[in-house]
Design goal:
This protein is an alpha+beta fold. It has helices spanning 37-47, 121-128, 145-151, 154-165, 168-200, 202-325, 332-389; strands spanning 3-9, 18-21, 77-85, 97-105, 110-114, 117-119. The chain has a 6-stranded antiparallel sheet.
Length: 390
């Protein structure tokens, strides 16, 4: 097993995606101070699950994300991918190549992947146990780490030696098993206490059980009674529903008839309104004719008055002429003829005046009849409106 490549993006001094390939010809990475050599080592530690910000040379985990410069804006996450050759199956993973990825966001969320499949931090720790690459491994020792190891207590140095000997996995499993056993013993103690408590409650529970059985029997009987009542109620409701449906159909028929009658009344009302308008028009025409006849009658009365005046004048003239003609017999024949013509003209005028008066009387009778007919139609129309509103 050997390291093939390291890909970082947004991690410390690597804002852009950077791929570093490790081959057989690479033995060291050199550079001046501040060039980012230690950031590569920190990225390898970080992707293998390192949680100590002090080890990663920061105050908080957010410090591993590129914070930006005057020319470059800060990024929102840091990501590192470590690719290992596993053809010898040194890692407990069935693949010739193992890619371990860690991603951290400024919100504090972390994501872990093994060969681009989501994984837990615990899965990564267990995979690197006994390989010398884990968080307690000896393959990545930073500056001053050797002095720190030598100054540690014997119990702390023991973890490094166990990792080198390949037994740290078993030690972790042993510790995990001991924790589970202690947890199980605590559960057994609690179960014992629970059993003791339940034994004390056994007799009351027995009484309660008898009551519960009696309750279930009564409840079953009650259920039967409720079903019977429900069926009876259902039958009554069904009968009531049928009667309500029949009443509804009857009411619907009556309502339809009422609608039909109302439509007929509306039609009759429209017809009578039209007849009333027609009668009003005829009455208006008759009134116009009567007005014209009245005007003619007045005109003829005036003419008759003039003619009467003329007749009186003529009669006076006739008397005067008769008196004058007593001694003038030669001229009496012409004067008599003129008098006869005047009398015939007067007779014609009186006959025409009589005819006009008869026509006026006839028109007045027709006007009276039409007025009475119009009043009857109006009364019927008002009665019909009253019936519709009721």
């Amino acid at each position: 097993m050997y390291l093939k490549s390291l890909e970082v993006q947004g991690f410390k001094s690597f804002p852009d995606k950077t791929l570093i390939r490790f081959g057989d010809d690479i033995t060291a990475i050199v550079g001046p101070n501040g060039s980012g050599k230690s950031n590569i080592s920190d990225a390898i530690l970080w992707v293998m699950g390192e949680q100590s910000t002090k080890t990663l040379r920061g105050a908080k985990m957010e410090d591993v994300i590129f914070g930006g410069t005057q020319k470059r804006a800060a990024v929102g996450f840091a990501e590192a991918t470590l690719t290992l050759d596993n053809t010898d199956r040194a890692l407990a993973y069935d693949s010739d190549e193992v890619m371990v990825t860690r991603r951290y966001y400024r919100s504090g969320d972390s994501e872990y992947y093994i060969n681009r499949q989501s994984a837990r931090l615990r899965d990564i720790h267990e995979m690197f146990m006994d390989t010398g690459l884990g968080r307690e491994g000896y393959s990545n020792i930073g500056q001053g780490r050797i002095d720190e190891i030598l100054s540690l207590k014997s119990a702390d140095r023991r973890e490094i030696f166990e990792e080198a000997a390949g037994i740290s996995k078993y030690r972790h499993r042993k510790e995990e098993t001991e924790r589970k056993l202690a947890h199980t013993e605590d559960n057994l103690l609690r179960i014992g206490d629970k059993v003791s408590e339940l034994e004390m409650q056994l007799e009351p529970l027995k009484v309660q059980s008898e009551k519960a059985k009696k309750y279930l029997e009564l409840k079953e009987d009650l259920l039967g009674v409720e079903v019977t009542v429900w069926l009876d109620t259902l039958e009554k409701l069904s009968t009531a529903a049928k009667k309500a449906e029949e009443d509804y159909n009857s009411a619907s028929f009556v309502l339809q008839q009422a609608h039909d009658d109302l439509n007929k009344l509306y039609a009759k009302s429209e017809q009578m309104s039209a007849e009333l308008r027609h009668k009003d028009e005829e009455l208006e025409n008759i009134r116009s004719q009567v007005s014209m006849l009245d005007a003619t009658h007045q005109q003829m009365d005036g003419q008759m008055a003039v003619l009467r005046g003329n007749v009186q004048n003529n009669e006076a003239n006739i008397k005067r002429i008769e008196e004058e003609l007593q001694g003038q017999e030669d001229r009496s024949g012409g004067i008599a003829a003129q008098m006869e013509q005047a009398r015939q003209r007067i007779a014609q005028i009186e006959e025409s005046l009589t005819e006009k008066r008869a026509a006026v009387n006839t028109l007045q009778q027709e006007l009276t009849a039409l007025s009475a007919n119009a009043e009857g139609i109006t009364r019927q129309f008002l009665d019909l409106r009253t019936t519709e509103s009721n």
